[in-house]
Amino acid sequence: MYNENTVFIIGAAASIKYGFPLGDELTDSVSTLFGDYGKGNTLSERFRKNFEILRQDELLSRISETYPTKVVEESSRHIHQGLHGMRSVDRYLHVHQDNESIVFLGKLAIASSILKYERQSTLYNWQKKLIDTGISTKIQKVQKPITVHDKKLENLTNTWINIFFNNLSEGYTKDTVKNIFENVSIICFNYDRCIEFYLMELLVITFSLNRDTAANILSTLNIIHPYGTIGNCIENGDENYLPFGNSGERPVNEFALAKRIVTFTESTNENTNNSKRIINAVSGASKMIILGFGFEQMNMDILKLPAHKTGTIRKFYATAYGEIEIGKKVILEQLASSFLSNGLPKSGLKLFEENVEFFDDDCETMLQKIRRKL
Predict the structure, then answer these.
(1) What is the residue extent of each domain of the chain?
(2) DSSP label at residue 142
(3) Could you list the pLDDT tens digit for every one of the 374 residues in the chain?
């Protein structure tokens, strides 16, 4: 339970323990999808092999209706080769923002990769085990002999979303849990839906709620994905519904899927709904919790308050695992530039530094350490 407006900023490192990649790993994954050049494979053969999660033949047919085969070949080659010089796919798509085919194919590859990672994640296997044992709506743990794989599932209790939920749910009952997400906003820079998916399951099994009730409660959480997601993983009548790790339960509209991914250029447009929501969340926050975030300048620009907005954040808590002191100083300057309407306060960086606490820990350890400060 948080009594003050608190914003969580979530980066790629926060999802590692669920089986998701860091930016450079996702870059490699996307690049690989456009590989196999010079091996005599046709475009159709490469799509059939590399985009195995999607409906390859229909997909290629629809792409061909929009882009000539030569353009698709050329764009695919550019993506495959060009990503080797980039730390993230987002940066690459920003560089090529004016090339419609590269942006579309890049978004499609991101969506395909994220679906694959979701299906391989510990969360997907955890839910499957609950369903297989018939206790998906109960609070009890799976009562089966522990195998190596089962131990991985048990370790979910030591991940940041579980700790976040336990901290947040303290003091709530089944009658009052509808208010659990008051005073909380999450700005997640990841494409995956780990947060929504896991929180939904935790609401169901912890408070013995039916799924409709849990979905309604989850809908009150102000969660923003600046770079979009591949769809809503909660089934509530939303046309954008796509099950977590979709294993064929729902047909995939690849063009719609790609459109849900957002480039940096699109995310920084102040007139978009996401941009307005980010500004409102950040400008109204008293505390900011930063987990697994790399402080890339592109992402800091997305969070930057416009000049006419005055931030109210009094305290920052951030993971800075492995950062040396000079690196932390740079991060301090970035934070001041993004969250103070006029940059550094007159009293200088030293005063601002007193409100920023760095932790040379993983996300889980930091959350445990600051639990009573929230």
Answers:
(1) 1-20+122-227+262-374, 23-119
(2) P
(3) 788 899 999 999 999 999 999 888 899 988 988 876 555 566 666 666 666 555 555 666 778 788 888 898 889 889 999 998 888 899 999 999 999 999 999 998 898 889 889 988 999 877 766 655 554 444 333 333 333 344 444 578 889 999 999 999 999 999 999 999 999 999 999 999 999 999 999 999 999 999 999 999 999 999 999 999 988 888 777 778 888 888 766 767 777 788 899 988 788 776 678 888 998 999 888 999 999 999 999 899 999 887 767 666 789 999 998 887 888 888 988 888 887 655 555 555 677 788 899 999 999 999 999 998 88
> CA 158 to CA 342: how far, in whole Å?
39
Task: Tell me which residue has tokens 């990672």.
Answer: 117
The three-state DSSP-derived secondary structure of 216-280 is HHHCCCEEECCCECCCECCCCCCCCECCCCCCCCCCCCHHHHHHCECCHHHHCCCCCHHHHHHHH
- Phi then psi dihedrals of residue 319, to 5 deg: -75, 135
